[in-house]
Design goal:
The protein is α/β, with parallel strands linked by helices. It has helices spanning 2-18, 20-40, 59-70, 86-91, 105-110, 126-151, 173-203, 206-210, 216-244, 254-278, 282-298, 311-316, 321-334, 343-368, and strands spanning 48-54, 74-79, 97-101, 117-121.
Length: 369
């Protein structure tokens, strides 16, 4: 049995590697998506264009403007001499923020009174607006503290001193790029496994396999193992790129990481085999794979926190293996988790792998018979 199974696995690898389309699926898209996501996907804002409406015209207000212009988060693009152009600049998206300094700003500071500064932001994208306001508050708070230190003014009774665990610089790439390991591993595994049986049917060689001494279980294993091996190899390449190219630290154990990755790939392999068993052409298999991938990514917590989703949608995420592997991978990169702390995620992925592989075997046997 082992010799027959090994022969089928080797045949499957040769079929994948000899086919130009299959090679392209394995090499091209993952590299392109890794580069695009790694460099383009970010929750951080840099060089936010802003305009200045300085009604105070004092040295103190000019110092505040200089603090904004010198920040990496902001880029001064316009100076206003009246309020007329504020709405037009934001409407045209030439600026995303306007810094409006009140004419009483320096006088109030020198008399120890609250100094009004207005921040006008483009609220059409609420997430971006909240980030801009957070950055602006940080610049103003730092400027106020520096001014108070220079002039001996009384400091506020409470002062915020932020300190972030696991990601001290709050670099969003440390959160996004480890998630890409799961995303690209799922895409490659699902496409490779999903196209396997459909490719045989389309080429007319599937009937030849059925007349061999191989049992349906042998055929199923022979189609599964290449997907598992390729998925692990693809995940390893992406993990190496994450650590050595993008500089994201891998603080957790490799054993914990690869245990989660293996269980995840097993679950995705079962889903791919289910799709492949139902599809009669490679086009149908591709459509089935993408029909699964899009909701899987959206409901995984990759970009949107699951806790912010409606309760029925949160319940739906419980059958999504990507939800659990994202937790494992991100914790292994940024923390040092133990096996016991990840046991629930491991158990969920193992259960999903068992269910998907069992369902794939049932569908496969039904189609063969």
């Amino acid at each position: 049995m082992l010799a027959r199974l090994l022969a089928l696995v080797i045949k499957e690898f040769l079929a994948i590697l000899r086919d130009g389309k299959s090679r392209a699926v394995l090499i091209g898209p993952p590299l392109i998506q890794l580069i695009v996501f790694g460099y383009a996907a970010s929750f951080d804002l840099n060089h936010v264009p802003f305009a200045v409406y300085n009604q105070d015209h004092s040295a103190i207000s000019r110092d505040l403007v200089a603090d904004f212009a010198g920040s990496r988060a902001f880029q001064e693009v316009a100076v206003l001499h009246g309020p007329e152009r504020i709405r037009a600049l934001i409407d045209s998206r030439e600026v995303e923020m306007v810094l409006d300094i009140d004419p009483r700003f320096s006088r109030n500071l020198l008399t120890n009174q609250p100094a009004p500064v207005q921040i006008i932001v483009d609220g059409r994208n609420s997430n971006t607006a909240l980030l801009i306001l957070g950055y602006a508050n940080s610049v103003i708070a730092d400027a106020s503290a520096a001014w108070a230190a220079r002039h001996g003014a009384a400091e506020p009774p409470a002062r915020l001193e932020p300190h972030a665990l696991f990601n001290p610089n709050l670099d969003s790439h440390w959160f996004i790029i480890p998630g890409i390991v799961a995303l690209l591993t799922q895409i490659v595994t699902l496409l490779v496994v999903g196209l396997s049986v459909a490719r045989e049917r389309e080429a007319g060689t599937f009937d030849q396999i059925l007349v061999t001494p191989l049992r349906p279980l042998d055929i199923l294993l022979g189609k599964s193992l290449p997907g598992l091996i390729i998925g692990l190899a693809e995940g390893t390449v992406i993990i190496l790129a994450t650590v050595f190219w993008f500089g994201v630290p891998l603080n957790g154990g490799l054993l914990q990481l690869y245990t989660g990755l293996f269980l995840f790939i097993a679950a995705v392999t079962g889903i791919g085999l289910m799709i492949s068993s139902l599809a009669t052409t490679q086009q149908q298999a591709l459509l089935g794979a993408f029909m699964f991938m899009v909701p899987s990514i959206i409901l995984s917590g990759f970009a949107t926190p699951i806790a912010n989703m409606p309760a029925p949608v949160q319940a739906l995420t419980l059958v999504n293996p990507m939800r659990y592997v994202l937790v494992v991978i991100r914790r292994c990169f940024l923390e040092q988790p133990s096996f016991s702390s990840l046991s629930l995620d491991y158990a969920a992925m193992a259960a999903l792998a068992l269910c998907s592989l069992t369902a794939a075997a049932w569908l496969f046997r039904k189609r063969v018979v």
